[in-house]
Amino acid sequence: MDEQLERIKAKLEQLRSSDPNNGLFGASTHKYRLNPTIPIDKIRKFELAHNVDLPSDYAAFLMNIGNGGAGPFYGLERLEDALFDDLDYKRPDALLNPAKPFLHTEAWNQTFKPTVNYEEDEEEYEKQRIEFEERYFDRQQMNGVIAICNFGCGVRLNLVVNGQEYGNIWTDDRSSDYGIHPSYELGNKDKISFLNWYELWLDKPLKERAGKSQKMRG
Q1: Which residue, 46, 78, 139, 170, has fewest beta-carbon neighbours within 10 Å?
Q2: Cα-flanking dihedrals φ and ψ of residue 43, to 5°?
Q3: 55: closest CA among 7, 21, 103, 98?
Q4: What is the pLDDT of residue 97?
Q5: Distance, CA of 140 to CA of 98 (rounded, Å)
Q6: Residue 34 pLDDT > 90, yes or no?
Q7: Are 61 and 202 in contact (CB under 8 A)?
Q8: pLDDT digits (tens, 9 = 90+) for 144-153
Q9: What pLDDT does 218 receive?
Q10: Are 180 and 191 in contact (CB under 8 A)?
């Protein structure tokens, strides 16, 4: 793990240097800046308060690289903000519950299928729609996770800290009607852990820039 952490530090500096105008998606928000690291006792305090054990690679990142900041999309959240259900509007009355197991092991989604047409019975249609949305957006669907990254438009990337998917990144894409699924936004085909996800974010633009440089020299 130490070797991967050192690779990540070097690649982040390389990406920062190669993108002085913050042209990469989300970079204008985080500007490749990292928040200060946090000590192990602060991590343990969070774990005790919420009855979880953070995945070791994520904890190592917090202690050795930074507590949020530069990262995929609009950047990484601070550990202090990891329980907010909505990363666009962080409300203290809308929090995740990482102490309960994550419910999913495969991609999950549902669609609204009313038993009446809107034109036939507007009141019943609206009643069924509200009931569906209450079930679909039930916060319990995302038990067992902490929020680590804001993709934008209400889409949130999460780290599973409780349950069979422990250590993997999952996306809450319900705001776009795509349900809840393993994170594949960076092009990975398989489920992915935190450090591998973060390094993949660095590798993609670095490889693209290297390819462009070769073409220009050729």
Answers
A1: 139
A2: -65, -45
A3: 98
A4: 97
A5: 10
A6: yes
A7: no
A8: 999 999 999 8
A9: 47
A10: no
**Alpha carbon 135 to chain centroid, angstroms:** 22
Q: Rounded to the nearest 5°, which phi and psi values hold at 136?
A: -65, -40
Q: Which of 99, 202, 98 is nearest to 148 (CA)?
A: 98
Beta-carbon count within 10 A of 42 CB: 15
Q: Which amino acid is at 34?
A: L
∠ CA 180-114-138, nearest 5°, is: 35
**For residue 215, what pLDDT is reported?**
54
* φ, ψ (nearest 5 deg) of residue 149: -160, 135
What is the residue type of 83? Answer: L
Average pLDDT, the chain: 94
Unique residue bearing structure tokens 């949305």:
133
The partner residues of 53 in beta bridges, in order of sequence, read none
Interstrand relation of 145-152 and 155-160 (parallel, antiparallel or unpaired): antiparallel
Query: How far is residue 36 from each of residues 39, 65, 82, 107, 203, measured CA to CA in Å?
Result: 10, 8, 16, 35, 23
Alpha-carbon distance of 11 to 120, in angstroms, equals 59
